[in-house]
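Can't attach files on this board, so I'm pasting raw text. These are the components:
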Amino acid sequence: MNWRKRMDWLWSHALLIVICFIFFFPVLWLILASFSATGSIYDLSGFFPKAFSLNGYITLFGDTVMYDYPNWLKNTLFVAVCSSILGTTLVILTAYTISRFQFKARKVLMKSTLVLSMFPGFMTMTAVYLLMVNFNLINQLWALILIYAAGAPMGYLTQKGYFDSISASVFEAARLDGASNFRIFRSIALPLSKPIIVYTALTQFAWPWSDFILPNLLLKNKNLWTVAVGLMHLDETQFTRFAAGSIFIAVPIVILYFALSGFLVSGVTAGAAKE
Amino acid sequence: MNGKPLILQAVQCPSPRVKASMILMGLGQILSREYIKGLLYLASLAAYVGYLAMIGITDIAGFITLGTVEADPWLGTAGDDSIIMMLRGLLAIVLTVGIVLLYRSNLRDILETEQLGLYGGNALPFPEAVRHFLDRKFYIVALALPVIGVMVFNVIPILFMILISFTNYGGNIIPPKLVDWTGLDSFRRVLSLTGIRETFFRILGWNMIWALASTAVNYFGGLGLALLLNKKCFKFKKFWRMFPIIAYAVPGFITLLAFKFLFSYGGPINYYITQAGSSAIGFLDIDAGLKAKLIGLGVNAWISIPTSMLLATGILSNMNESLYEAASIDGASPWQQFKKITLPFVVFSTTPVLITNFIGNFNNFGIFYFLRGGLYMDGYFLASDTDLLINWLYNLSIDNNYYSIGAAVSLIIFIITSVLSLSVYVRSNAYRKEDTYR
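---
Top answer:
Structure tokens for the assembled complex are below.
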């Protein structure tokens, strides 16, 4: 290695370490704070707790009078799982159909989803909120699920890109053999699309799992709060509880992302190139 | 089927059965001895007419007047609820569109029966016809649920908001008070009423700066990080890449709340500042000004750079290595290689994403809602200097019930973002070649 290369190696590593530190430190700070023996942010000395204990997690699950974390978790899981199942079904159906079939309304549908997606999502939410208030549907978990799932097909482009990449000859051969379109979908398309189904299910799960706008608007009843809404209501004196609650729901999703990181990269890229 | 409009084809077709179906939906089908299909058409028509006679007409009339009787608690009269009336009118209109579409399908069906000579008992028996339909028109069956879902939870709410923007709904005027159609009044108020106008243009200016700056920071930050990680001198790439991916996977609201704690009075940064003997700084206070804006930019970068890094990594892996070899043989410096090879390629393949990101940042609700939500500053109407239009929209319509002004603001946001993105999008290569990927 000559001198120039060595310098290059050095500054590249220095820069990367600094960047990784910036990305990791806030997370580390939360992890440390979640093991703080005392609850308030004022009891920490800077970034570090004065004493460590599992107290944060014990109160998180034990002391539920004011802040019922187990219940929030239950609500979040319920909403996220149901909307993931429903939403994935709808997205896959939409993407497959738009990719595989040529019909009159196809271009119209594609253009109108494009136009619809340009309305600020917030506008729809305000309207949904007003509608729900007017029809007295506020404080319903299933309303939340329906809204998430029904909105999912709007983001069908990544999945369509995937179906576009499957060679049409497979389907045509089956068609010649007399298979019905439903059978082709069930026995050929679905088995071939496992990766994209996993990707879709994960993204459809992660969205309600970490959304705060909609639950904050629609769930006024404390029993129905999701984790996001609940954590929003914790102030500086409940910092350890906040940190513990955050780490507890962030860890599963981080692990999921890592387990599926291969899908993620290809999914993000597919969406980019095919849009 | 040829390209002539459906209705013209039906008029020109000499068959009495087609004429019958034109006059009374489903009649032709019954005359062709397709009894079940014909009866289904007839029944839906009857149901629609019944609906119209019972409530539909009143609903449409109510849609136009938005109520005439105001509730009077003293006299105990139950008044009209304008918003419910508007919604019922909207429903009546949607149903009418539905019946028109069904009428068209009835015409198409009878013409097809006629052309194929299937009338008079030659048609497929009903169960088989259904199976045939399900197979041949699989796309209708498959798309029915998604389309209905999007209709109910996207299209109708959007229509509703558009309608609201043409009324005076909000402020003091909420049911039981009567709401009225006021035309473009809400838009006029946003663009010309003293107080609201200044707020609007101030926020719009900041919103533009924010969207441009944050998109640029995130995009080039991600590209830079991807290029850095692509350097040959790094072993354990997977290990290094792990850190941004952790940041990417942590739910956004946790990150945002954590950063809010980080910069709060009790937070660690102020702890060190006070330890050093200075007084604590209100990083996100109402008078924080530029500090708060920069913090927002940084926090947004922290959240978004990992995504754009993943994207850039994927795109860089598709690049042709030999280009670089040729360039370095020709003596091009790394900077020249970046400018002449990498950048054009990456920008070219990510234009649509760039637009999506720009729109996403333009409407980035979370950042300033969490960092300093609910602050109202002097010189602003129900907003603060870091609020984006979308945050203002929230303050207006959710927190303060200014529904019609909020709806007008959201339509203005829509016009801005759609004009911006369409003008770029239509020109981009990715759009022109939409179906050439197969």
